[in-house]
UniProtKB/TrEMBL annotation:
Residues 1-22 are annotated as: Disordered. Residues 86-138 form the Translation initiation factor 5A C-terminal domain. InterPro entries: IF5A-like, IF5A-like_N, IF5A_C, NA-bd_OB-fold, Rib_uL2_dom2, Trans_elong_IF5A_hypusine_site, Translation_prot_SH3-like_sf. GO terms for biological process: positive regulation of translational elongation; positive regulation of translational termination. This is Eukaryotic translation initiation factor 5A. The keyword Protein biosynthesis applies. Keywords: Hypusine, Initiation factor, Protein biosynthesis. Belongs to the eIF-5A family. Transmembrane segments: none annotated. Translation factor that promotes translation elongation and termination, particularly upon ribosome stalling at specific amino acid sequence contexts. Binds between the exit (E) and peptidyl (P) site of the ribosome and promotes rescue of stalled ribosome: specifically required for efficient translation of polyproline-containing peptides as well as other motifs that stall the ribosome. Acts as ribosome quality control (RQC) cofactor by joining the RQC complex to facilitate peptidyl transfer during CAT tailing step. GO terms for molecular function: ribosome binding; RNA binding; translation elongation factor activity; translation initiation factor activity.
């Protein structure tokens, strides 16, 4: 190759890891995950119809959005690919809630995570404070 040659690479994805991966619809099961209408969801019900005279078997998914709890449904041919989100769940122990709504959480390695803010809904915030105070014996 000479130094004057230029190489152009066309990328169809942005840099970094993908947020989803393809999986055949017929292999997605209850308690798995799927993307429906652009939202990551946990599957709560799957039913599969038999093949028709001229078509594929179809999977009917009923799922709950993992962020807002809304119920979504989709019907996909069982042989087609669906987007499945990469989901990592981490549980933390709640230590305290500050006056400005930030929570202090205990991590698995014994450190604290203090950069998470609760929703600004004052009713929800006061309910969470009351629950924490009663758990900590500060009533």
């Amino acid at each position: 190759m000479s130094d004057s040659e230029e190489h152009h690479f066309e990328s169809k994805a942005d840099a970094g890891a993908s947020k989803t991966y393809p999986q055949q619809a017929g292999t997605i099961r209850k308690n798995g995950y799927i993307v429906i209408k652009g939202r990551p969801c946990k599957v709560v019900e799957v039913s599969t119809s038999k093949t028709g005279k001229h078509g594929h078997a179809k999977c009917h998914f009923v799922a709950i959005d993992i962020f807002n709890g809304k119920k979504l449904e989709d019907i996909v041919p069982s042989s087609h690919n669906c987007d499945v989100p990469h989901v990592n769940r981490t549980d933390y122990q709640l230590i305290d809630i500050s006056e400005d709504g930030f929570v202090s959480l205990l991590t698995e390695n014994g450190g604290t995570k203090d950069d998470l803010r609760l929703p600004t809904d004052e009713t929800l915030l006061s309910q969470q404070r009351l629950k924490l105070d009663s758990m900590m014996g500060r009533t």
